[in-house]
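Morning F.,

Quick status update on the modeling queue. The single chain you submitted on Monday has been processed. Sequence for confirmation:
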Amino acid sequence: MLLPRRNLLLGAAALPIAGLLPRSMRAEEVKAVHAIAIHGEPKYGPDFKHFDYANPDAPKGGTVRFSALGSFDSFNPYIIKGDPGPASSIDQLLTGSLDEASAEYGLIAESVEVPDDRSWVAFNLRPEARWHDGKPISVEDVIFSFNILTTKGAPNYRLYYQNVAKAEAVGERKVKFTFSGGSNRELPVIMGQLSVLPKHYWEGRDFEQPTLEPPLGSGPYKVDSFEAGRWVVLKRVPDYWAKDLPVNVGQNNWDAIRYDYYRDPTVALEAFKAGNVDLRQESSSRQWATAYETPAKKAGRIILEKIPDESPQGMQGYIYNLRRDVFKDRRVREALAYAYDFEWMNKTLSDGQLVRTRSYWQGSELTATGVPADGELEILEKFRGKIPDEVFTTEYQPPKSDGTGNIRANLRKAADLLKSAGWEIKGGALTNVQSGKVMQFQILLNNPQAERSTQPFLQNLGRLGVKAQMRTVDPSQYINLLNDFDFDMTSLRFPASLSPGNEQREYWGSASADQRGSQNYIGIKDPVIDELVNLIVAAPDRDTLVARTRALDRVLQWGFYIVPEFNVPFFRVAYWNKFSHPAVTPKYALGLDTWWVDPAKEAALKGKQTN
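Structure tokens below.
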């Protein structure tokens, strides 16, 4: 705990008599532990052998081939320049388990020290930790990584680490991060997630530029060969220094991983069906239902498997760019959502497989439901008059229809809202009464498959008099447009964590709204939301975190920043029948790292293909 302020003023003269102070006034004694969690205790104790969802007897070997969309021209993922491809893996100080909300276990660090007030964190590095060139991973590497990421890395690193006041070596194998800015229980875990970069490699190289020289790594895989923009092959490092650590047992089983790049998702699907891709996750409900009905599937050579996903689904939807004047009025944003007919789209285009999204933490205890009560209400009362009144009186639900495609009632509601905001139909076009400007905007897409569900939305917007169009670009161009906030509206998914924290500042914080490359794509600048995010970051326990997150969820819902689309509460995986995976799957991720090539299945598959 923190010492009383008067003791902090004693200075160096007090040090010789520190042993005479009462125990409660001495510097806190901090125990080194194998793992930490944001709230509560880690699931796995110091003597655990492997994660429950990993098979320690999984065989090593084989190759897996994935498809990727777009292209790549760099192996530097830490900057916003270039389109990064799969690079040699880099280990972190700690690594998380996939069946817990917020726990991290030692990887490069064999132990971690955190005081009760979480004002700092120290990591004790493993002496056996090595780079791929055999040199040891040092405290200097850790400090170098923090400094270069926050000074020359993508802008989000500066925001993410803004409350780290100091990084210093406090021993030959010990590094300490000291924090500022008040209580933040997440910061020790965040620092554990630091990607440790090799100082001796990057010194003398321009970190701020894309590079096709594969950077030196430390993890289980490294780049073996590639052709820029077309394919990358990663090979498993046979003498990987951490292969026998409990956090890695039963994982990283493939000898080689190949990524082939395709410009078009339809071509990527056909490559899978032709046997040129081994495994893929399917995002399209229609394709999941119809596109895999091939002789190979009927013969059992292609397997389609649904694997439960218990993680928060996050918010997916058409986001408004508030930097555009047309979307600044909340009534306009609310109105346009009435033109999206989820029920018809789900029934007609997706065979009823989708679930409507209504929360930014969909499918978790963090979802705001009903009306605020108890702790959540106490939080929100402070902002009464600064947030929509509906926050206190009504549970948010996105507009609904009967699924027939007839949404006249919804469009009438939209027209009334638009009229109250100063928009009326003139000459068949929705026109602003004061400026005389016609409402027109463009929906930016990066996948042609999204055009099927976007087209009906555009048609309904047209019935309101809105001149809306869609524009589909390749993934590389799409990323650049997002980084520059150069779009009107686009479809995005904001990932959600069971333990939200600092990342919320980048999603919704005012400080990130004008920061090129940030994930505040919407451009939200609201002091109430800033304060709610800060409350989440400072939450002292799980119950408080839940209440504060629900409060933020509710304010975001009633801000109408997004036209909610849908989510799928399971992973849809299609694969050629040469893989096996543990019977126990991770709660909060697909966990492909635990899969393996089954020699018997692979032999049988090859036999069927040659017969």
